[in-house]
Amino acid sequence: MSGRGDGRLFRPSPEPLVTIGLTLSTSSPTLIPSPTSSFYIILTARVLHTTHPSLPITLATHLNPFSSLSNRSFANILCISSPDFSQSSELQEQQQQPTTTTTTTTPATTTSSNTTITSQQPLQKKQIEIYPRGWPQYRHSGSDLRSSWDFVTIPPQGQGELVIRHQLRWEKIEEADVKEGERYKVSLTNKCLGTRWWGFGSLDEQFKGVKLREWREGEGNDGDETSEGHDGELGENAVGGERPEDLALVIENEYAVFEIG
Predict the structure, then answer these.
(1) pLDDT digits over 159-168, tens only?
(2) Sheet holding 255-260, edge to edge
């Protein structure tokens, strides 16, 4: 389930049973920097591929983009243009790289074989910081996941979408000292593209009123029937769902852009 060495929490199967597409947008093209004004990052999810097109998909939101803006699913929101700068963020990044010239050297340069390497000070990137410095806590009840995690249901393939609205907190906007006319880019990372529990069915029907527990090796049957088992700790049947790696979350658009009003 976990990535190795690249910071990814999930690593789905190369041939998942279900693929969910994620799209980013914002509640408005303009953010008004005021504590009384609400601004939302909108995540839209739809089923792109499934082995059971007539069935919805229910999944845990724990540590993935459905949960919040602050669990490493979203990158820091970068300023990509500003009235104070005539350069784009891409050009700024290019200017941080060493350049080769044949001009006369100065104390700030180093010469070798008549070639001058000019070092340039990197331009500081302005951003609204939402990326956490540490991972959230993992503690949960493996035998009753509903007591620890939230769950959502995505409609069957071709029958609708799930829309999640994450509010961008005023404190984060204020800390960034945003200015009118600046444009910002919000994007997803590849750290949390997966889930720790999912199943074929909806919270209102197949999973209504039942307890959900962690998947166990050997369980999961491609949605033909619910994976259930007697849990001595609960004293009743609980649903184990499908193998977590068999569901993939993929990014359909790279980012969404908004402007400070």
Answers:
(1) 999 999 999 9
(2) 30-31, 255-260, 183-187, 77-81, 127-128
